[in-house]
Write a structure and sequence with these properties.
Maltoporin, Chain A, globular, 639 residues, mainly beta, four-stranded mixed β-sheet
Length: 639
């Protein structure tokens, strides 16, 4: 979970300009994340962005960076490839003499098929008259490039004692490592803060970003571009010298498995994503007394995504069939309103109490639409005119249109109390009640408590003023968090349109799409944490160690059901898993001055996880994603 200026950004922070970040804090242990509820069950990253300051300031900065493959794989060139092929035939003749004699292996002599591909009148020949290869392609060089990225940031800020403002602008253009890929981003952020009265402060933030991504195809399996780049044979050209500029294919050399040309995929296929996001928040801070304050934050995130794509019939995947053009559109809206009271009080100098109590409401809504067509008369159409396709666009068919509406909401109540004695001994207790519309009516709410203790040893009299140890703290905590991170409407049986042929006529209707599970309940994780913080020489060197054990019960998974039911699975609470690990980090400030800072960071983590149980029978579960067959499995006793 990302929390930006007090507002949840569950869609991630790719639309946030990194240069706008003022500070960042990572919360990992269960006690610290518990106040953020189920959405913080996997950790919380708290981001505070830059805001306006008193006085007039104008700043500009930019950077240029380059990126490339860290290391090319050592692959065969044309000569070595042909030598290896010849060796393979020799080995077959030696170790399977009977099969060789019986004609089991086609093209017994590689020279036979090479001679057939050496016709000087054939523009697609691969060998010269001496049977030497005409081409020796380094496909890694052909597909990849040195990506250059540039980013420009311009900011204005100013104001008085009562009112400050900030305007932060960014333009980024980054080329990808794969050729023909890039990202362009335009973003702007406006902040205003106003101290209306001694007891009232209000403010607002408005973010806008416009991002265009051009990526390679998102195919899995054999037609994935990085995989093709490695598996393509070097003796086939990128393009033949014929009038059409035909792309070379692996199967142009006999006995090779069919596959696409990765350069053709990067040049001819198009996959764009254009994303616009408006995100903003309004806040009000009311101070009732020196000890009691109230904060209200209303945040909104409105996004619009346009995803056109095109698959050309110039590539092997669609050669001899039809090109395909599609357009996807998505609109999403997230609204959050959080209100909480904070009480701070110091008693008799040595006792400090901080209490927070509040309510948090959030609603998500999205609407998506997709349409595609095949058989455009010319590749020049790309995705600009789906009406030019020859294939009828029938809703509910593969070559047609579909749309989907989604919505869910949360209502949560939370409280936290923190007690400190002499700044040495710290006790924290947190409780949160989350409610989610994703569960059945009987199980929508979940209660998740947590607690932690800490001993700041560096504040003990025997260490105060120590010139070496500047910070030393021991921490222990226990907490429970919930998880509702699964698709909407799994507690309900869902319908979908369908059709059937009656008397030669297609008749539309409605069928059940999924089995509903009204008994679906919160997934619950219980975690123990033990941590140590060490700071040396005024924190020029800091070390942190965290040991944790996390057990998750009532796992929400797609549980297989008998095929005779007509369904493949039902979303259920099945089984439990255990994660145990150790995380270590070391940070040093090597040089610091007004003009130059040099710091280093080293971290390492160790993780052990096991599936403890999977339903009453302990049957394997295949969670996906899958390709052709199941590629992932959950099995009791295994990671």
């Amino acid at each position: 979970l990302y929390v930006v200026d007090g507002v949840f950004w569950e869609q991630g922070i790719t639309t946030l300009n990194p240069n706008d970040i003022e500070s960042l804090e990572v919360l990992k242990d269960a006690s610290a994340t518990a106040i953020y509820g189920a959405r913080g069950s996997s950790g919380v990253i708290i981001i505070t962005t830059k805001r306006g300051r008193k006085g007039s300031q104008v700043a500009y900065d930019n950077y240029v960076s380059v990126s490339k493959m860290a290391r090319k794989l050592d692959l065969l060139n044309a000569r070595d490839f042909l030598a290896l092929e010849a060796l393979g035939y020799q080995n077959v003749q030696k170790f399977d003499a009977a099969g060789w004699a019986a004609g089991k292996y086609a093209n017994k002599d590689p020279r036979i098929k090479r001679r057939a591909l050496a016709n000087p009148n054939d523009p697609k020949r691969l060998f010269d008259e001496n049977l030497n290869p005409l081409y020796d392609v380094d496909w890694q060089d052909a597909v990849t490039q040195t990506g250059v990225a540039q980013s420009h940031n311009l900011s204005f800020s100013g104001g008085s004692d009562q009112t400050t403002f900030g305007l932060f602008l960014n333009y980024t253009n980054a080329q990808g490592i794969i050729r023909e890929t890039y990202q362009k981003r335009y973003s702007g952020r406006l902040t205003v803060d106003n101290q209306v009265k001694d007891w009232l402060k209000i403010g607002a933030t408005l973010n806008y970003s416009n991002i265009e991504d051009k990526i390679g195809n998102n195919f899995v399996g054999a037609n994935n571009i990085p995989r093709l780049m490695i598996e393509m044979i070097p003796i086939v050209p990128i393009q033949y010298p014929d009038a059409a500029g035909t792309y070379g294919k692996r199967q142009d050399y006999p006995d090779m498995e069919g596959a696409d040309n990765p350069v053709a995929l990067t040049r001819e296929d198009v996959n764009l994503t254009r994303n616009q996001v408006f995100a903003g928040n309004l806040y009000a801070n009311i101070t009732f007394s020196p000890n009691l304050s109230f904060r209200s934050v209303f945040g909104a995130n409105i996004s619009s995504q346009f995803n056109p794509s095109y698959e050309s019939n110039l590539v092997q995947l669609r050669a001899g069939t039809q090109n395909l053009a599609g357009i996807g559109a998505y609109d999403g809206k997230s609204l959050q309103w959080q209100n909480y009271l904070t009480y701070n009080k110091t008693f008799a100098e040595n006792h400090a109490l901080n209490v927070v109590a509040g309510v948090d409401a959030q609603r998500f809504q999205s609407n998506g639409f997709y349409s595609e067509t095949q058989g455009l008369s010319d590749n020049a159409y790309l995705f600009y005119n789906l009406g030019a396709g020859a294939t009828p666009q029938v809703p509910g068919t593969f070559n047609g249109a579909a749309n989907q509406f989604d919505a869910n909401q949360f209502l949560s109540f939370f409280g936290r109390a923190n007690y400190t004695y002499k700044d040495r001994y710290i006790l924290t207790g947190t409780a949160r009640s989350d409610g989610s519309s994703r569960f059945g009516t009987a199980n929508q709410r979940g209660f998740f408590p947590s607690g932690a203790v800490a001993w700041r040893i560096s504040q003990e009299p025997f260490l105060v003023g120590n010139s070496t140890v500047s910070d030393l703290k021991l921490r222990f905590g226990y907490g429970q968090t919930g998880n509702s991170n699964f698709a909407n409407y799994q507690s309900q049986a869902r319908l979908q349109p369908n059709s059937y042929i009656f008397n030669g006529v297609r008749v539309g209707g409605t069928t059940l799409n999924t089995l509903g599970n009204p008994d679906l309940r919160w997934e619950r994780a219980s975690q123990f944490d033990l941590g140590l913080n060490v700071g040396l020489w005024q924190n020029r060197v800091t070390f942190e160690a965290d040991l944790y054990s996390r057990t998750t019960t009532d796992l929400i998974l797609a549980q297989p059901v008998p095929r005779t039911s007509g369904y493949g699975s039902i979303t259920s609470n099945v089984g439990s898993i255990r994660n145990q690990g150790l995380e270590l980090s070391l940070n040093t400030v090597n040089v610091t001055s007004a003009d130059f800072t040099w710091s280093t960071n080293f971290n390492v983590s160790f993780l052990k996880n096991r599936v403890v149980a999977l339903g009453p029978a302990g049957d394997d579960i295949y969670p996906g994603p899958n390709f052709l067959n199941e590629t992932n499995v959950l099995r009791v006793g295994q990671p």
